[in-house]
UniProtKB/TrEMBL annotation:
Region: Disordered, residue numbers: 561-586
Any coiled-coil regions, as ranges: none
Pfam families: PhoX
Organism name: Streptomyces hygroscopicus
InterPro entries found in the cross-reference section: PhoX (IPR008557), TAT_signal (IPR006311)
Organism lineage string: Bacteria, Bacillati, Actinomycetota, Actinomycetes, Kitasatosporales
Listed name of the protein: Phosphatase
Amino acid sequence: AAAKGRAARGLRFSPVAPNTEDAVVVAEGHDQNVVIRWGDPILRGAPAFDPDRQSAKAQAGQFGYNNDYMAVLDVPGERDHQLLVANHEYTDEVLMFSGYDPENPTREQAEIGWAAHGLSVVVTAEERGLGRLTAVPRHRLNRRITATTPFEVTGPAAGSELLRTSADPTGRRVLGTLNNCGGGITPWGTVLSGEENFNQYFAGGDAVTDPVTAARLKRYGITGAASERKWERFDDRFDVTKEPNETNRFGWVIEIDPFDPESTPRKLTALGRFKHEAAEPRLTTDGRPVLYMGDDEKFDYFYKFVSSKRMMKGNSRTAREHNRTLLDEGTLYVAKFTGDSPATEIDGSGKLPRDGEFDGAGEWIPLASGDRSFVPGMTAEEVYVFTRIAADKAGATKMDRPEDVEPSPRTGRVYIALTNNTDRGKAGKAPADEANPRNANKHGQILELTERWNNAGSTRFTWRLFLVCGDPEDPGTYFGGFPKDQVSPISCPDNITFDAYGNLWISTDGNALGSHDGLFGVATSGSRRGEVKQFLTVPTGAETCGPIVQERRVLVAVQHPGEKDGASVEKPASTWPDGPGKLTRPSVISVWRRDGGTIGA
Ligand code: FEO
Ligand code: CA
Ligand code: CA
Ligand code: CA
């Protein structure tokens, strides 16, 4: 169908052209401000950011490094305030410390790194009539969670021998969270966050001789002698030869109650352990929560968890206490995708098969439920702690790096960003299939999954590819059937979210088309389905994260600006956001329409 008429509601703006400016470039007619930067004080007593006098103590009260996922929640009783929860995925020491020596980090630098990881909870306020959004330091709800904050382990693997260490013989109390990537907000008002590339913090994998342990470590990418940041020199728990089970205490989804700064955050073992990218909830037709979850690694899997308990509505103490157990009991599944076109028509180029669509059916394969394992040769505890190995045995479909996932609040269809997989089709690796149809896939795709009866609890589904990303002039791309001469080029979809109109907003990480990463909006239904439009671009070296699209505001986390090979404090690749002579600082930005109007109206 020809694309006549105006863009879909919510997407009526002039797209930003691809560019390589060291700036956040927003669509015409919009303004922006930096809401909060790495190092800005948020807790009482925290000092202003001073890169020459940074300390672990200061950092523990300041906004952390490399903001990724963001959640925004209304603050009850405070109309002008919203609560921002931001993850701090990892640290870039060469861009944080002048003269940093990667071979000889100091204890203080390691401890600053611990304090710069985790999450921040910070209240924000709109400056009346100005459109600007600013952080409210010292608000009673502000909180920092770091790599040393105590967590409670819950669910079926809590207390397992596989989780016990000399510091924690109970296997129920872990210090800290690491590499928090995507996340989600539950219908009962808590925030979830996935621990992703936790393997990089652990040393000594090469020296483990027990074959079972070595195979487990290898499947999770813990194979090196020293770790990248050398934290094992300052805390034995990061050395698997000294504390073999510490690594099993990372790679979980965590849940925090952002409205109770005194609450103990939790690690949820029922959701399995892998490089958790995101955890996005939906309810089954009978009111039980379901979480969709990706494992971001080349050829890894897509999962869901279905709770066995119904959510209780309201904010009573009984409801809150009940709802905090919802993610501890249920069934963990992994996805198997089957194409409906003959395999001979999937040639690895991205060319559409004869039925005109990459599509098919699929099933959810159960892995474990409570203390019952469905995987021969593995106990339920082993399934939860070594979920990747369980999914290998179950015959799940090897995907092109499942990143964020988002169910459409309008249609219930579930969207999965498969960011790229340059190893697809290589010798000894899985070849292209209908759900992952390109070999050497540089640009990624977005898959749309519809549960049977549109019930999140179903064990069967259908699916089709919504976007096969890249340069629209490349014949191996697909934009939901929309004319390709009218869309913005897009590469490496990562974090995704929906606006109130049902448009999908996609942020990218690793744009392989030679221009900077950015944020894009696209209609998912109607005659404009597949019309991708770029809303903003981010500075040199940055990825675009956390997008939140509200009626009159778009929030984006600009993660790792200036991250380029060879870059350092002395030789910066980016001077965003504060200009030459200042450290580049990962920051959250807010964008609004200069005339105060509705975004995309
Ligand atoms: Fe932290 Fe898979 O992105
Ligand atoms: Ca097909
Ligand atoms: Ca990501
Ligand atoms: Ca999301």
